[in-house]
């Protein structure tokens, strides 16, 4: 079949998998593919050096209808201003700010914009803020290294803005009133705040953004109740490295305000020591690894599960957690129906054989409908010269024996997935993706016998996302992301 015989929509789908460079090269091969491949190549642009900033902006401005009009996502990193880290912001080269303003003023199709060093760039060229406020299709705005000036620019964005990321300079000598400045953005649905402390919130007496649905609080040092009162209607919460200062007025007497319920909650177990989330949560994700049974993180994880009653739990655990953590989870997880587990241990020799021998029986104490276990490849590698006395479990043995052991140990199990591969993490160490094949089975009953029937990964993933057979007795449907 000749690829050129496909319609434009099909060709656009194919080129969407190409990198920018590959799409540009493809656009130069055949006249039929030129506009489609070029449109994709110019839709997402990353500016990460001063030279690239000058070259790409000039290129786009040379042909606005044929080039700039296709721009949808634009990200300008800290490296575009000749610096390597936030502490170098004062020494950045912001001479290209005018060129960036010229580009933004004409980028009418731009939907997502991310700008580093915002507190320096925006004062250097006020037209950038004015251009952002005038863009007719801008939906997501991300401002890095911000303070008062950038915050004011954000507050002047039009009502169509749906998502905002504000990453304040980590060490500020001023205290911008973040909540007050954000009040004009009444249609905002998603907000991500970094490096906010109690001085930035001011006195919160009532809702600031009642339409907000997704809140991310990262490296925040302020009581949770302030965010509950300011954003009372959120349905998804991400909190990471949150705390309450010992010098806070509310250190010993914090109000117990909490959201009535959440669809999604992502946090490190350690964060629950500071923000006491105690409401019904449909999907709970722990963003740091449970290393050992006796770790403080394990105890906090038990408390979090008890206080939130999730139907879905996504977590990463070490093979050294083989007893008290899982038995404690079973005691506190009456609503739990789906466990999505990353099993890893990259810091020491494997204890996988002990985990396989003990944990399936503990999982059987939970009325699980679905279980997905993805084993980090580091977990099963033991150097031959290290005679640890611990039995080494081969990949073949895991894939052959573990599914049957799990299906037998967990009577309520309906869907099972098992994979071995490598974990992909972000810059903050949080799990992002799993690189490896995952096998899926449906558990069938034949009298008193249980049989594992292989199914495609698509069917298994669809079962998770649609949730129809997974949430029996949990009061609603839900899904789980690939994260």
How is this structure best described in words?
InterPro entries: LRR_dom_sf (IPR032675). This is F-box domain-containing protein. The chain has 483 residues and is α/β, with parallel strands linked by helices. It has a domain at 269-483. Helix content is 30%, strand content 22%. It has a 17-stranded mixed β-sheet that branches. The longest helix has 15 residues, at 395-409. The protein is globular and about 70 Å long.
Number of strands: 17
Mean pLDDT: 84
Could you give the distance between the termini? Answer: 36 Å
The quaternary organization reads as single chain
Query: Roughly what fraction of the amino acids lie in strands?
Result: 15-25%
Low-confidence stretches: 380-387, 468-483
Count of runs of 4 or more consecutive helical residues: 16
Percentage of residues assigned to helices: 25-40%
Q: Write down the overall geometry.
A: globular
Q: Which class do the helix and strand fractions yield?
A: alpha/beta
Radius of gyration: 25 Å
The major beta sheet can be summarized as: 17 strands, mixed
Keywords, separated by commas or semicolons:
single chain, LRR_dom_sf, F-box domain-containing protein, 17-stranded mixed beta sheet, 483 residues, 17 strands
């Amino acid at each position: 079949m000749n690829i050129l015989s496909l319609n434009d929509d099909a060709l656009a789908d194919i080129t969407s998998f190409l990198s920018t460079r590959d799409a540009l090269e493809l656009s130069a091969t055949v006249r039929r593919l030129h506009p489609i491949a070029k449109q994709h190549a110019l839709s997402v642009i990353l500016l990460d050096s001063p030279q690239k900033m000058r070259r790409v902006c000039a290129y786009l401005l040379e042909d606005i209808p044929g080039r700039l009009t296709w721009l949808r996502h634009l990200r300008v990193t800290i490296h575009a201003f000749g610096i390597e880290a936030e502490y170098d912001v004062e020494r950045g080269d912001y001479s290209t700010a005018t060129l960036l303003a010229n580009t933004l003023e004409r980028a009418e199709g731009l939907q997502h914009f991310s700008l580093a060093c915002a507190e320096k760039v925006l004062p250097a060229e006020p037209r950038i803020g004015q251009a952002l406020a005038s863009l007719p299709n801008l939906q997501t705005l991300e401002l890095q290294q911000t303070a008062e000036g950038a915050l004011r620019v954000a507050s002047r964005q039009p009502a169509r803005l749906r998502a905002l990321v504000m990453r304040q300079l980590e060490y500020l000598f001023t205290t911008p009133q973040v909540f007050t400045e954000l009040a004009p953005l009444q249609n905002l649905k998603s907000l991500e705040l970094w490096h906010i402390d109690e001085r930035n919130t001011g006195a919160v007496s009532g809702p600031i953004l009642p339409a907000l649905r997704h809140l991310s609080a990262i490296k925040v040092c302020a009581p949770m109740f302030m965010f509950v009162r300011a954003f009372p209607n959120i349905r998804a919460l991400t909190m990471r490295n949150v705390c309450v200062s010992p010098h806070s007025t509310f250190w010993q007497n914090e109000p117990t305000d909490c959201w009535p319920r959440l669809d999604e909650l992502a946090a490190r177990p350690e964060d629950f020591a500071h923000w006491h989330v105690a409401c019904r949560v449909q999907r709970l994700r722990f963003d740091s690894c449970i290393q050992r049974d006796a770790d403080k993180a394990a105890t906090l994880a038990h408390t979090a599960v008890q206080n939130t009653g999730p139907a879905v739990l996504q977590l990463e655990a070490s093979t050294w957690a083989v007893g008290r953590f899982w038995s404690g989870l079973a005691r506190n997880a009456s609503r739990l129906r789906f466990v999505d587990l990353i099993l890893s241990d990259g810091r020491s020799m494997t204890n996988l054989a002990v985990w396989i021998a003990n944990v399936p029986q503990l999982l059987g104490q939970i009325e699980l409908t679905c279980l997905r276990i993805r084993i980090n490849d580091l977990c099963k590698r033991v150097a031959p010269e290290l005679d640890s006395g611990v039995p080494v479990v081969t990949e073949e043995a895991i894939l052959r024996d573990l599914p049957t052991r799990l299906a037998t140990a967990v009577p309520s199990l309906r869907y099972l997935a098992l994979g071995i591969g490598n974990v992909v993490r972000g810059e903050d160490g949080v799990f992002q993706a799993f690189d490896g094949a995952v096998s899926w089975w449906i558990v069938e009953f034949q009298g008193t016998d249980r049989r594992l029937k292989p199914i495609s990964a698509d069917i298994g993933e669809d079962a998770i996302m649609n949730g129809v057979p997974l949430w029996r007795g949990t009061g609603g449907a839900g899904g789980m992301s690939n994260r």
